[in-house]
Amino acid sequence: MYKQRFKNPNYKSTAGKNYAHVRYIATRPRVSKNEGMNHGLFGKLSPGPITDFEDWRDVARLVYANSKKHITMYRSVISFDEETAAELNLSDQKAWQRYIENHMMTIAEKNNIRREHLQWACALHKEKHHPHIHVVFWDTSSRVKNPFTPPAIPNAIRKQLIKDTFAERIRAYGEEKNKSTAELRSISNELVDEFEQHLRRLGKDQYKRLRADYDEENELSGSFDFDDDVLNETADRIFRLKSALPSTGRIAYQLLTPEMKAKVDGLVEYLLENVPALREQKERYIDSKMKMALLYGGSDEYLDSLRKRFSGEADKIIANRLLGMVKTLNRLDYEMKSEEYKDARRSYFAEQMLMEALDMLSGLTRDNDSRFSDWEKANGRELSKDAKKELFLKLQDKGYEH
User: Fold this and answer.
1) How do residues 277-307 score in pLDDT, each as one tens digit?
2) CA nearest to 177, candidates 309, 92, 31, 286
3) Are strands 42-44 and 51-52 parallel, antiparallel or unpaired?
4) To which H or E segment does residue 119 belong?
């Protein structure tokens, strides 16, 4: 947990309240005291190592003087539950000193304070169930600064502290989420692959009759022969989806109409009810996402809304894999149309070649008849048998050269 507040520097009472706040965090019961001292205030007023302040009053007087100059004294708290503090080895004041020194610049940078202008003091309160550290920090630069702090700033600090503090855990959760996502897709892909393999085993004519029945919304029974009833039902619904979707354009869940989304959602729900492995993997996916979300905290209502959102993400992953079955049908349709197109082109070219040959022979015949008629007219008589043979030999190489 991270909280940040300040007292308005323009109020007369602010200087006294800031002085009292330093006294409180340094001397309250259960404060973790500096060695050999009656208070627990430590921090940095200049570059270098952390200082265990000799007297908390010196720091309180400095805070008081700064407040009189209208310098904003920011107050913040970093808190962990007991189990998390133990996990992070935050067992004593020195461990907390190392922790806050490692993360103090995150707090400063988010508040737009430069390192050379940063001063801070803090004290550890070792409450049993929620050990926490109070930090007072300020900007020593002379520039005028609006004291208002948007809520986004402490929220950003909290998130960054979580990322930095739990970097290894977040990395592990991310790997677990990625693995769960891959497994979820893998199980869905098995359905898609088996579906395609079955359809490819069908004869072309059988497949075309099946597609035509669905396109014409005919009553069907026993159309599929999968060994698995769930896959039979899935295939039936996929064919109906295919018939209801446009044959061209991108197929993705987010682009579907509400009516089509409802049909796909119904199929996803059916599979989750009837395929335990898919249902279990969905839960693993949600749990992996929730582990990371819980690091950042939130109300029960907010966490419930996240669980619903992550559940929707998992359903969408499954839905898009199922739409891959529709893409399979489109691909098969294209392949068959392409094959039919090639057959038609081959038939067309064969027919064209035959027609051209016939046309060529017809033209040669007409030319030969015309030349013979012209010669006969020129000679003006009937040819003898020997003359006809001589004319044939003379004309035989005229026309088409082969």
Assistant:
1) 888 888 888 888 888 888 887 788 989 999 9
2) 286
3) antiparallel
4) strand 118-125
pLDDT one-digit tens code per residue, 99-155: 999 999 999 999 999 999 999 999 999 988 889 999 999 999 866 567 778 889 999
Amino acid at 3: K
User: What pLDDT digit, counting tens, does each position of 219-248 carry?
Assistant: 443 444 445 677 778 777 887 888 888 777
R_g of the chain, CA atoms, integer Å = 43
Higher pLDDT, residue 71 or 360: 71
DSSP string, 134-197: EEEEEE-S-S-------THHHHHHHHHHHHHHTHHHHHHHHHHHHHHHHHHHHHHHHHHHHHHH
Per the CB < 8 A criterion, the answer to whether 198 and 328 are in contact is no
d(CA 271, CA 317): 13
Say whether domain 2-165 belongs to CATH 3.80.10: no
- Nearest CA to 230 out of 264, 200, 267 is that of 267
**How many residues in total does the chain contain?**
402
Longest dimension (CA), the chain: 149
